[in-house]
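Section 4.2 – Deliverable D4.2 (structural model, holo form)

The reporting period included a commitment to supply a predicted holo structure for the target in complex with PTJ. Inputs used:
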Amino acid sequence: MVERGIVSTTGLIAHGRGEAFDYLLGERTTPEAEAAEAAAAALLSLAERPVITINGNAAALAAKELGELAKVCGAPLEINLFHRTDRRMELVCDHVEDETGLKVLGRNQDSTLEGIASDRARCTSEGLLSADVVLIPLEDGDRAEAMAKAGKKVISIDLNPLSRTSQAAEVAVVDELTRAVPNITAWARRFKDRPEEARGVLSAFQNRENLDSLLRRICRGLEELPPK
Ligand code: PTJ
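Output (C-alpha cells):
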C-alpha cells in the first residue's frame, strides 16, 4: 500500500506505534475496548449526521469493514489526508470506492476546519463540517482536538490510550482497527431498532474511567511478566 501511494511513509511509523501498544494490550479486544465499541455504536446509531473519516492507513487496513459500518449507520465516508497531495487523494478515494461500492466524499473539499493550519484543515461542508458525530480512525491529535472544539462528538479508534486523539475523544476505542470496526458494526446492527438500549449503553459509559482502566491494565501486564 505504501508502494501504491495509498499509505504515506509516515503511515508506516504510525502503524508501528500502534503495534507496540497492541502488544502491551495483549493483541486482543480488552473488556474496556468492548465497552467503548458498544458506546461508539450507540453514539453512531443515535446521531443525526454521522460521518466516518478515512485516511491512508485506515483505507489500507479496513476499507471494506468501514464501508459495512457506513452502510449500517447511514454515515457517509469522507477521505481526509494528513499528508495530502492531489494524487494520493485520488488514489485513496478510488481504492475505498472500489472496496466498498460506495461513493465517498473528499474529492471536492470546499471547507476548512477551524484551528488548523495548512492542507490538513480541508474537509467538505456536506460531510465533516456539518456532522454531529464523527468516527476518526488513526487520526492525528490536532485534527481530533479541532473537531471536538467545533462541537462534534468524536469517536476515535487509536491503540494509544495516551494520544491526544484518544484524550480528545468523547468515546475512545483503544483497539486494533480491524478488530474494532467489525465489532462496532455488530453493535450498531443490534441498536438499529433498539434506540432505548443504545441510550442506556451510552449513558452508562464513562470514557475517562475506561481510559484509566486501560492504563492500569497495561501496567499490570508489565508487572506480571514472568521473571527471566
Ligand atoms: O494517510 P494520511 O496522510 O492521512 O496519514 C495518516 C497517519 C496515520 C500517518 C497520520 O494521521 C498520523 O501521523 O497519525 P498519528 O498521529 O501517528 O496517529 C495514528 C495513531 O494510530 C497512533 O496513535 C497509533 O498508535 C494508532 N494506530 C496505528 N495503527 C493502528 C492504530 N490504532 C488502531 N489500529 C491500528 N492498526
